[in-house]
């Protein structure tokens, strides 16, 4: 049995937060949202989130800084970066810092995001299975 997957979406654009949260809830995920990286960090310290979707360009703190802090706090969190301002350098830096995936905005379809979250869920399940096998 797997724990209930909790997803956190971090974006300063309210429309994105609402649309992604609705879509992922329809897919059966327990979804929480944060409109700032500072709020997200507070939430992460109080609750285990398995999958985190984060915008890169945000006020207060950019998504790459947030990614670094998330990974320091929870190295196993699957962090998916989202941005409308992509360069190869930003993409590579995100992956080097531990992002599990990268999505370009605007999304062709919000369902594409759902598919990427599902892939990260599968990664987590494989990890849980391997860990369970270590205790048999």
Automatic annotation (TrEMBL):
Chain positions found as 4-aspartylphosphate: 55
UniProt domain Response regulatory: residue ranges: 6-120
InterPro entries documented for this protein: Bact_response_regulator, CheY-like_superfamily, Sig_transdc_resp-reg_receiver
Keyword match Oxidoreductase: no
Record keywords: Phosphoprotein
A GO BP annotation: phosphorelay signal transduction system
Domain of life, source organism: Bacteria
PROSITE patterns: RESPONSE_REGULATORY
Any Pfam family: Response_reg
Keyword Phosphoprotein tagged: yes
Function of the molecule: May play the central regulatory role in sporulation. It may be an element of the effector pathway responsible for the activation of sporulation genes in response to nutritional stress. Spo0A may act in concert with spo0H (a sigma factor) to control the expression of some genes that are critical to the sporulation process.
Entry protein name: Stage 0 sporulation protein A homolog
């Amino acid at each position: 049995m797997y724990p209930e997957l909790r997803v956190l979406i971090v974006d300063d654009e309210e429309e994105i937060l609402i649309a992604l949260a609705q879509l992922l809830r329809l897919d059966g995920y327990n979804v929480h949202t944060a409109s700032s990286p500072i709020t997200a960090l507070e939430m992460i310290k109080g609750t285990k989130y398995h999958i985190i979707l984060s915008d890169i360009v945000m006020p207060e703190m950019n998504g790459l800084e947030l990614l670094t802090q998330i990974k320091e706090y929870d190295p196993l969190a699957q962090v998916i970066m989202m941005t409308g301002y992509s360069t190869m350098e930003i993409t590579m830096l995100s992956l080097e810092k531990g992002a599990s995936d990268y999505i370009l905005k605007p999304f062709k379809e919000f369902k594409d995001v759902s598919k990427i979250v599902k892939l990260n869920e599968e990664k987590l399940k494989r990890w849980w299975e391997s860990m369970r096998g270590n205790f048999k």
